[in-house]
Amino acid sequence: MKFGVVIFPGSNCDYDTYWVLKEALAQDTRFLWHKDHHLPPIDCLILPGGFSYGDYLRSGAIARFSPLMQEVREFAERGGLILGICNGFQILLELGLLPGVMLRNKNLKFLCQFVHLRINNNQTPFSHKGKKGQVLRIPIAHYEGNYYAPPETLAEIKRNNQIVFQYSTPEGELTPEANINGALENIAGLVNKQGNVLGMMPHPERAAESILGSEDGRLIFESIISWLA
Amino acid sequence: MIDAKILEEHNLTEEEYQRLVHLIGREPNLTELGIFSLMWSEHCSYKSSKIHLQKLPTTGPHVIQGPGENAGIVDLGDDLAAVFKIESHNHPSFIEPYQGAATGVGGILRDIFTMGARPIALLDSLRFGPLDHPKNKVIMEGVVSGISGYGNSIGVPTVGGEVYFHPCYSLNPLVNVFCLGIAQKDKIFYARAGQAGNPVLYVGAKTGRDGIHGATMASAEFDENLEKKRPNVQVGDPFKEKLLLEACLEAMHKGLIVGIQDMGAAGLTCSTTEMAAKSGTGIEINLDLVPQREEGMTPYEIMLSESQERMLLVTTPDKVNQVREIFAKWDLDAIVIGQVIEGGLLKVWFKGELVVDVPVEAVVNLCPVYHRPWKEPSDRQAKTLTTLPPCPSDWERIFLQLLSSPTIGDKEWVFRQYDHMVQVNTAFLPGADAAVLRIKGTQRALAITLDGNSSFCYFNPREGGKIALAEACRNLACVGAQPLGVTNCLNFGNPEKPEIMWEFKEVVEGLAEACRFFNLPITGGNVSFYNETEGNPILPTPVIGVVGIINDVRKAARPGFKNKGDIIYLVGPLSEELGASLYLREIMGQDVGPTPQLDLNMEYNVQEFCRQAINQELLQSAHDVSEGGLAVSLAESCFHSPQYLGFKGEIPAGIRADVFLFGEGQSRLVVSISPQNEAAILELAAQKKVPLLKLGLVQEEKMEIWQGTESLISLPVKQVYQAWKSAIPSFFKIS
Description:
Chain A has 229 residues and is an alpha/beta fold.
């Protein structure tokens, strides 16, 4: 199977994601340039973390106008797998491929630290190698990760079982203290209704090698690989 | 037309002006005067420090590039090189904390990628006044967000450093920023103009009026008019710099660059003249072609602007189009603004007129060098501890108070605002003795630390200079790293005062002695003088950055106790020194010396012992004894374990408990070992002639310290952890 990692101006986790897929997981992986008009044949597309266009207007707001994004929409409609990590999640929201918006973290500061994530839905291409209720230790690094959606949208998200990951205690409890950035329903990761597009604030690529302190992020990449196999 | 008032505004003395006139053979015009004033400022010329800096060793087996370029370079093997440097951004950070710190990060990053290296790590040494003063809190919040705002966006992790509090930094905060990048050894770039006829290209952000006189500002004391200096601080744009970084590295990788220099302090002036001077050529530019952000800028303003995110690069005529294409890909302009010429002159054209015509050699290399007078201050002898204060008995209160001192307390409030994990190399999280970054594709890792104890340097600058280097190397030893190279940022008061000059000279000589002893070269750095406000100087503050290598990162000792039942040893001499300690200053209210003595041989042995023990996988943990002494080092060793491990330790009879627990004697470590390795550790220590003292055992839940049958401290780990954890957040409303 083939992975493509999109580079926007200001992406800064593009190389990290590429490194993990290519070196740690030995996958056929290529970079995709945001100005391109054609998507090469790939099975999974990744929108990496970073500060696309400096995040100056609003995170992800300018990146959605990149030429490649039209192709990305069509890829999603065809059922292609898309994983948006951190800034990639914000871009998916701006593209309208996922519902809701991001607000600033509740403490109004950038937060970089390991957090615990409870798997709420293990029936997706991105989480099926995990168990429902399983807790993963993966870092976050963001200023705007406080997920919000209006009540009717949230009701639909829940009806469709779209919440994949939630901030939790190490034991898997969804407490307010564990809800690091103040996200609605502790939401850390969300799929679209069809289940082929995942946005998540935590960085699985930063937890994919033991030398970096956790390998829990591999579960997400390995789920994708086994889904596509 | 140049009168005394204009000279004063340019921080030039009458003698310096006469020298200038003599060198160019006529009176300069205002733009030319501006150019000389910048390049002859203390910040750019090192005119007061040069004669002393020459005492530092700068060569060694691993050195590829010593001082004199944008950054120093050491060989890492495997065709890789580490490019690194530290710089101060103290003055701008005081005036405008957010932008001052942010542009400090931007500036040091450019120094690194200018040489062809991809920056992989940032560290900062930050020094503030006490947090109970609101102004200091505002400065700290601004500085931390500025570093976070710039470093996070550009995607270079801030992996470590230090945060230190002392009243002397109240109106003189220090922001020293370190950056390290990795380059291919055969793809290193220098600030060279090459041959006559080479086109000179301007790339990056447009030029505005910001930052004019930044370098001269950093070369003078502040007075009550400092608010007026705010327009001198530049504004950073990390997104622009990220594009510049990618475009420059791509152009370098494709072999399109002859030479390159960033426009940092002294902007276009410094980059044009330095590149020409290094190639023995001249350079000619047309200011009408320089992209400008504002209307009606004068040649003086364009030449002196310190607008950020700009670079000057030299290529060959046949490669201009390829360079332009790469920059266009990154949405950046690359504009030919001039060319390299024969004859050694800087010629600047503006609207058809030649507005600058001066020899680059005079601008860059013929600044006066000062042998400033120095004199030992008379007040230091009186500030020596003659008799010990009465011995206290409320040990638990003192212990908790020390751990909740912001200098010692947890720095997570700071570090979690920095992206310290991007680039997926961060093997040790911030808070360890040194930052550890794996080198991708190898088993090796880089270890980096910043260190410098200003109290030690105040009471004994020579010993303090030695200790700064020794302690930084000791931090590396604690993670199992071998030091390779050193960069230094020397922060002092006004060098025109003989007492300050004495402090400077003594620190440099101490540092030089220690460098020679450890056979470690200084590969570059920065001197920041004039850290005084309203006549009050900072304590002498050398910040030493040491870069080392770990051959097998899997063996590196991770911080903190690991298992109940492990044996705890104090490695190093039994010190009975209490002078210059944080305990005396903050608990006993006695800000007095003497600075502890450093025995270089003992220091070397302790470090060798630690490195070898880690290499042989005999240690569970190793941690330096520094601020707060042994007791703090023991407590900190508990805070890295998620399961709240504590310890039970016993201190020798017949020694004053505070001296033993809180003294800051040198060359000491706290280590923990598995019982089965005890014999091997004792043997290694004997072989290395290193004293060991068994302190006790790692246990669960409680920290206990006994002296004979008397319990001095017996506290739940959670309670001590809370005191340490809340040391900084307790000063801020929203943590």
